[in-house]
Design a protein that fits this description.
By secondary structure, the protein is of the alpha+beta class. It has a domain at 19-165 and 235-247: GHMP Kinase, N-terminal domain (Ribosomal Protein S5, domain 2), CATH 3.30.230. It is built from seven helices and nine strands. The chain has helices at residues 56-61, 86-89, 94-108, 113-116, 134-155, 186-191, 220-247; strands spanning 21-25, 33-39, 42-51, 67-74, 120-129, 168-176, 179-182, 194-201, 206-213. The strands form two sheets. Strands 1-2-3-5-4 form a five-stranded mixed β-sheet. Strands 7-6-8-9 form a four-stranded antiparallel β-sheet, with helices on both faces. β6 and β7 form a beta hairpin. α3 packs across α5 and α5 (134-155) packs parallel to α7 (220-247). The longest helix is centred in the last third of the chain and has 28 residues, at 220-247. It is globular.
């Protein structure tokens, strides 16, 4: 595997470096928990609301506990060329469905829905600005918003304990100009030979690894390099999540 240490990245970023991470909690006052989370120029508003009821299918099947689900959208002005709203087109595109299912799966992997009780947790992720990595920013920000909401319910004695068993975060990695790099921006992502999204818990367990060659193949060594980069990035993101949650309470 080649590794081009002299590869020039935006802002002279190191191959294993995340983009600058910024967050603002409480961005959506009517949500129980919310954060504007940014990976560089990618900015996503993640908000959590909780209903005191479960979906009809859970009641019909007598399923114990609660439910968590996610919705994802890219606002029309989030990209260089205006993106038409799904509501205007009359249907949700496949990419949107894929990403919101990924967000939901990622958070359900680290929550005990029985502890949540007969409630539905809604996670809404709206992309304000897209510069690569919108799904990874959404997952990372979604956990922050959800945990802020849960801690508020515990403080109000609506919940006795935290249903989250672990934290969860996500980051991209890829092979760009034959070099493994972490947290790709749009220009890197569109020309990458291999693209991967790694979702992990704070304790270091894998939730999901998505990787694909873009008109290219890749070796086991390269895949391991991408996973290693992702693990490093998520360790940093987990610490940032802790800071953001504390600031939002």
């Amino acid at each position: 595997m080649n590794s081009n240490e002299s590869l020039q990245r935006t802002n002279d970023r190191a191959l294993n470096a995340l983009r600058p991470i910024h967050y603002t909690t409480g961005i959506a006052p009517h949500a129980l928990g919310s954060v504007l989370f940014a990976f560089g120029n990618t900015q996503v508003i993640c908000a959590c609301t909780i209903d005191n009821k479960v979906p009809n299918w859970m009641r019909a099947q007598g399923v114990e506990g609660g439910w968590m689900t996610a919705e994802y959208s890219m606002l029309p002005y989030s990209t260089l060329d205006r993106k038409q709203r799904d509501s205007s087109r009359g249907k949700t595109d496949g990419r949107t469905i894929e990403i919101q299912r990924l967000i939901g799966r990622s958070l359900r992997a680290v929550i005990d829905l029985k502890v949540l009780g007969a409630k539905t947790m809604w996670i809404d992720c709206d992309v304000l600005q897209a510069d690569g990595g919108t799904r990874t920013a959404s997952i990372t920000g979604a956990y922050i918003a959800a945990q802020i909401a849960i801690q508020k319910l515990i403080a109000k004695k609506v919940l006795e304990k935290d249903p989250f068993k672990d934290s969860v975060a996500a980051v991209s990695a890829g092979i760009f100009k034959d070099t493994p790099i972490l947290d790709l921006d749009y220009l890197e992502d569109k020309d990458a030979e291999v693209d991967a999204n790694i979702v992990m818990t704070g304790s270091g367990k894998y939730v999901e690894v998505q990787s694909s060659g873009e008109e290219a193949t890749y070796s086991e060594e390269q895949l391991n390099a991408l996973i290693s980069l992702g693990k490093q990035g998520i360790e940093t993101l987990t610490e940032i999540q802790k800071e953001a949650i504390a600031s939002g309470l």
